Amino acid sequence: MASAEPLVATEGLALWRQIEAAIAADIATRIYPPGERLPTEQALAARFGVNRHTLRRAMAALEARGLVRIEQGRGTFVQDPVLDYSVGRHTRFSEIVSRHNRAPGHRVLRSAEIAADAAVARALRLRKGARCLMMETLGEADGRPVALGTHYLPAARFPGIVERYAATQSLSVALRAYGIADYTRHSTRITARLPSAEEAGQLKQPRTRPVLVTESVDVDAALSPIQFVISRFPADRVQILVEP
Questions:
Q1: What is the pLDDT averaged over residues 106-131?
Q2: Backbone angles phi, psi at 231, to 5 degrees
Q3: Which CATH number fits domain 15-78: 1.10.10.10, 2.60.40.1120, 3.40.50.1970, 2.60.40.10?
Q4: Of the four, 36, 55, 177, 236, which is 20 to 30 A from 204 by CA?
Q5: Rounded distance, CA 29 to CA 122, Å?
Q6: How far apart are CA 135 and CA 85, in angstroms?
Q7: What would the CATH number be for the domain defined by 83-242?
Q8: What is the pLDDT of residues 192-243, one digit of tens each?
Q9: Closest to 19 in 3D by CA, of 41, 46, 48, 42
């Protein structure tokens, strides 16, 4: 935690500018890491020996720079770095996160064998009611959630793939056990909406902030669908780039 450091006005540098610079330095040195809530207005005002009006000018400047986000009723949070998520023929979560010098992580939250509804059956070219494997996964960058995915795969073709995925944390590696050396993205549909309470909890964000939603189909070399995925991304942490 940063120590108290009452400020005095200096020529050409207003008090609120000094506060802005001090907090920006704390963020840069990860005294306040991405996603962390800053101390309260009262605590920060006491730290710098200023009134709340002066402090609010500094916080507004930090928000304008994209360093913090101010959430009414919740406080002020250090902004997460935005991840450029490239969607193209070869979309691989771990590669995308690693490319940004961030550590990727995967977790299987739950899984089940289910009957395909109309949307899943259409995407996988199955009959409605055919058995599918469903698994919900959480993708992280430096330990922060950036993608919540619901995957559907044909159960008859991929028995045991949930366990293989959980063990390897890589769908590409898991698929090799079924003779699939590579797969490509066939289609991606992108929309936006507010998250459900469960989605907001998994992504560690308020329900008032939108999520980006992709519905995608991946195919093997013979263009046969291997998985249908619905992914939700926190809109303030991820921006989607569509590549040819």
A1: 96
A2: -115, 145
A3: 1.10.10.10
A4: 55
A5: 50
A6: 21
A7: 3.40.1410.10
A8: 999 999 999 999 988 988 999 999 999 999 999 999 999 999 998 999 999 8
A9: 48
Q: What is the CB neighbour count within 10 angstroms for residue 131?
A: 12
**CA 170/CA 180 separation, integer angstroms:** 13
Residue 189 confidence (pLDDT) above 90: yes
The pLDDT score that the predictor gives to residue 212 is 98
Distances (CA, A) of 241 to 9, 109, 152: 45, 27, 24
CA-to-CA distance for 49 and 32, rounded, in angstroms? 20
Report, in this order, helix, strand and coil percent for the chain, each rounded to 5. Answer: 30, 35, 35
Q: Return the pLDDT at 79.
A: 86
**CA of 34: how far to CAs of 26, 85, 110, 221, in Å?**
11, 18, 27, 40
- On the question of pLDDT at 8 being above 60, the answer is no
Specify the amino acid at residue 113: E
